[in-house]
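Subject: Sanity check before I submit

Could someone independently write out the structure tokens for this chain? I want to compare against mine line by line before I put it in a report. The sequence has 46 residues.
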Amino acid sequence: MKESFERVAAGVDDRNAGDALYKPMAGHLGTSAAYQAALDWCSRDG
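---
Independent answer below. Compare away.
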């Protein structure tokens, strides 16, 4: 699942490249609050 999330994070970064307030996730997966929250939410059971 993590490999899929990493690919998606890079795509999200690309789509938000023009937003000055956006904080990229790819390359910062260990410190990205957005990435960590999404991974945690999708990893929960039920």
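---
OP: Matches mine. For the report I'm noting this point. The first helix runs from residue 2 to 15.
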